[in-house]
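Please, structure for the following, as tokens.
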Amino acid sequence: MNLVAELERVIADPAVTASVTQLVEKLLTESRAEVERHATELHAAKTKIDALVLELAHLKRMRFGTRSEALGADTKDLFQETIEADIAAAKLELEKRQAEAGEPAKLPRPPRERAGRQPLPDHLPRIEHRHEPETCTCGQCGKDLVLIGENVSEQLDVEPARFFVHRHIRPQYACRACETVTAAPIPPAVIDGGMAAVGLLAWVIVGKYLDHLPLYRLEGIAAREGVTLSRSTLAEWVGRMGVALDPLTQRLAELLRQRSVLHADETPVRQLDPGNGKTHRAYLWAYRSNDLDTGAPIVVFDYQTSRSGAHARNFLVDWRGSLMVDDFGGYKALFTKGVTELACLAHARRKFFELNQAQPNTIAQEALTRIAALYEIEQRGRPLSSEERTALRQSEAVPLLDSLHIWLKATRLTVANGGGTAKAIDYSLKRWPALCRYATDGALPIDNNPVENAIRPVCLGKKNWLFTGSERAGKRAAAIQSLLATATLNGLDPAAWLRDTLEKLPTCLNRNIDSLLPLRQIP
């Protein structure tokens, strides 16, 4: 049918016909664009689903095909719990993606024999919670309800060094007139139908990622209380918690990139290569907000399999601000794309400190004295406002920095090349513009100590957990540690925050996710 001819036949006014034709064409164009957009999104969803299916199959091959002689006993335990957690997380992500795409499950769960859930120990104290219906009358006909039975479920919970059981009792009432049965609804949970209460889940997560206890140690702690918690069950909980908490970490990273000044650092970790029982080097990148900011402190960890500077660029995306880093070359590309470089005065000081520790050195001692004077100014400026701190730095720190620069250049002429003293001086002279840039603005930090302090607990914890079992496990650890470390920075009890968050998370809308973040309220 010719649309224009039909409109001209019905509508006498040519102007109206042209207007209607234009409107219809616009609507058709928008409809086609909308269809194309939905097709693109559907293709992306299917691609992600296919990737998850392949990853899940690979994880299962790793789990069931690992040669026992390739790994030692302790190593095998750690590897097994990692694979269990990865499989649980991959399954949950796959189910969500398939549900969003409206596809049937591609990997049906194979039937397997189950021993059944072990009954919770009788010797544990019970805390009963009675969940009565909101009304004692039938919602259908208004008649009185009659108690006909109770639906009892139990969840295992824990306080430090004390396990106990929540006993949920939901009386079932029936209406004699219309035979309607009424009972209190079961509230949504992070793990639907699971035996673990939020307190127990928080205990496992905090123990593994904050106290750096492998799951076999947590299993042993529970066993001493007469409670059986298998490592496979603990690993499944860990995997599911990683998926559930990941949106909080992603949001935390978004808020961090809104800050104008950031710290960055990285530390090596070992990642297991299950094929030969060996490990290879991976890296945990850390990004932290500036302590001189007025906002709540934030730290985000990003696990990557290499030290390539591309990882920092991928994390920061199009962020433009002032970045405090060490002299690692991986950050250099950022400084050619609008990011301002800040150098760490503590690193420069450390060169002279180590030189003097090895053997008393008058040049190193002089440098340490001069740098100490700069830190004394910072100490006095910390409680001041940004504007007042800028004025203090300009009046007192800038002259000392100029004097230090002149002294370093003059001293370098008297020192032989290749020695420790020459290397210490060269480090400062090479980075001098970035080292003294902090003095131009009271909002800029003097060193990179805040992010180093945030990453130190992870470095100490490596002595316990030795390595990550897979890339997914490393990313899960980084995400959860970001939340717990940020809670600690904000003066919150990580365990209490996590328990409260796990209670609220199942019913929290995406637009209210900020209310769950471990950030203190800034007056």
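Residues 322 and 467 are 33 Å apart (CA to CA). The chain is about 50% helix and 15% strand.
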